[in-house]
Amino acid sequence: MDRVVIPIGPQHPALKEPESFRVTLEGEKIKEVSLRLGYNHRGIEKACEARTYMQNIYLLERVCGICSHSHSTCYVQAVEDLAGVEVPKRALYIRTIVGELERLHSHLLWLGVAGHEIGFDTLFMYSWRDREIVMDLFAKITGNRVNYGINTIGGVRRDISKEDQKEILIAVDKLEERTKYYIKVATQEVTLIKRLSNVGKLSHADIESFGAVGPVARASGVDRDIRRDDPYAAYDEISFKVITDNNEDVYGRTLVRVGELMESYSIIRQAIKNMPDGPITVKVPRKIPEGESISRYEAPRGEDVHYVKSNGSDIPERVKLRAPTLANIKAVLKMLENYNLADLPIIVAAIDPCFSCTDRAISITKLDTGRSEIMDWKSLREYSIEWYKKRGIRF
Amino acid sequence: MNIEEEVQQELIKSFNFLDGKIRISRIRRIFFEMPVDKLEEVLEFLMDKIHFNILCTITGLDEGITIGILYHLTRKDGVIINLKISIPKDNPKIKTITNYFPGAEYYERELVDLLGAEVEGLPEGPRYPLPDGWPEGQYPLRKDWKSDMLGKESK
Q: Is A294 found in the same domain as A193?
């Protein structure tokens, strides 16, 4: 059979690290995938070494537009550890609330994208409409829809007033109602279950060996969540379940994410209820004593890791960060093997919740003739939907 | 005795050169430095005997005449071991740990591109994260590298 190699990318703006997949096909089957990363490497770690600790909060918040709070919290936690300051309780609760709201909009966004990639656009419209509720809340309580700028070294910059708390609770009630409906869709809608089950399977053992993180790992039965295992912010005072699943496929990853939405509602309610009064920030000297610290954070996509080394000045010696996508890359490559080309959009989307609508070019080269054609992501998606329609999966 | 101290005791019992070197900076955080030639032995001990079988990431540091490499290992209970080795900058050779952690591949490629480390045994593959046309011998995370060096080389 002819072997065909398909390069996908390099521009792949959905990922924090845009990347270029090179897919080798035998007929419809994906035989091998190789990857070239780093197209959007912006040298942020180097830039951190030329800015003060305070300036770096704003720089690191811009590592990602979806989980911006994750990166800034992970960083300030490391700096606070170095400075030896105790952050006021109320600030920790506010960080928790903002962090969980961020998880809500990220998972809702992912649900819509997953629906879109398989041709279930009603789901996309519904969940993105619901996501707007969270975005509006962010605009109200932080002043921004993205890059909320809520963190500072030693606490948070804005309080959440009584009135805002009420609004959050109303929004949470509404979203919970909607999520119950999504859970019903995910567990009863036969077409969806058939389309997502047994796609992109990756065993528990493979996940462990590749060091995958977040919902991708938990959907293969890996019971790991930084919020419980290495608690930060106010998570040690809040009770919640870590959602896991044993389907080990795209369907499992869907169930884990909708399950996590339900837990987030409960976490937000508990945090608002138990939030103590008091100051929201403490003063931290500009110069941070010499030392090193490592901080972890359970971002919507998985574990964020920040390492900060200080040299006694007001500028860090080294800031190292590892975003969850990098930890999941080896796992995705394995997941794609032996699946159909038509499964590629949803398998890639299933590890990446912020798949944007920007097009990306895919050129298909036939190895035997050297003939090549260009296909963009949209055509690949349409090809995938048509391919499954012929096989009886129709939304 | 808390868990961090237990890990500390276990390590000292098996590797007496670590006596007095292990620092517990706070709950769940353990730091130590160790000689390069014992790395594999210690890694195997950490993985097989005390279950530190998750690699968070690898950090590279420019320390003047040496390059510091930190391996951040963790396990189910959330304790992180930050194990550091130092290699001379003029001969920055380390052995790959992808035989223990296949996921370490991209972390090690970062050390190669950004700090100029030479990783023996790292599988062939595309570089990461710098572009293909990046000038040879320029390692941006070394302290003496400035971004204007790039402009002079490439134009």
A: yes
For residues A320 and A343, membership in a common domain is answered with no
Distance from CA of A144 to the nearest CA of B (A): 31
Same domain, A317 and A346: no
Q: What is the pTM of this model?
A: 0.91
**Could you tell me if residue A251 is inside a domain?**
yes
* Angle value at C-alpha B46, between B43 and B51, nearest 5 degrees: 135
What ranges in chain A are assigned the alpha helix state H? 44-48, 53-61, 68-83, 89-117, 121-141, 162-188, 190-196, 204-210, 214-218, 226-229, 250-274, 324-336, 344-351, 377-389
The range of the structural domain enclosing residue B126 comes to 3-146
**A293 neighbourhood in chain B, CB within 8 Å:** 25, 29
Q: Which of A34, A291, A309 faces B61 most closely, judged by CB atoms?
A: A309
Same domain for A112 and A158? yes
- Looking at residue A67, what is its pLDDT? 86
Choose from A20, A40, A41, A328 for mutation: most chain B CBs within 10 A: A41
Considering chain A, what is the average pLDDT of its residues? 88
Question: Which string of DSSP letters, residue by residue, matches A102-154?
Answer: HHHHHHHHHHHHHHHHTT-HHHHHHHHHHHHHHHHHHHHHTS-SSS---EETT
pLDDT band at residue A42 using 50, 70 and 90 as cut-offs: confident
B54 contacts in chain A (CB < 8 Å):
211
Nearest to B56 among A43, A305, A330 (CB): A305
Total number of domains in chain A: 2
Residues of B with CB under 8 A from a CB of A: 25-26, 28-29, 31, 53-57, 59-61, 70, 72, 74, 76-78, 80, 82, 101-107, 114, 125-131, 140-141, 145, 147
> A350-379, pLDDT tens digit by residue?
886 433 222 223 434 444 444 555 566 777
Residue of B nearest to A208 (CA): B54
State whether B61 and A35 contact (CB < 8 Å): no
Residue of A nearest to B79 (CA): A230
Given a cut of 50, is residue A14 above it in pLDDT? no
CB nearest to A330's CB, from B56, B82, B102: B102
Pair A299, A380 in one domain: no
| Residue of A294, A303, A325, A334 to mutate, testing the B interface (most B Cβ within 10 Å of its Cβ) | A294
Distances (CA, A) of A194 to A108, A249, A308: 21, 12, 46
| pLDDT tens per residue across span A79-135 | 999 999 999 999 999 999 999 999 999 999 999 989 988 999 999 999 999 999 999
- Between CA A258 and CA B88 the distance in angstroms is 50
What are the tokens at A220?
A: 């293969």
Torsion of CA A227, A230, A236, A241, to 10 degrees: 40
- Same domain? For A239 and A114 the reply is yes
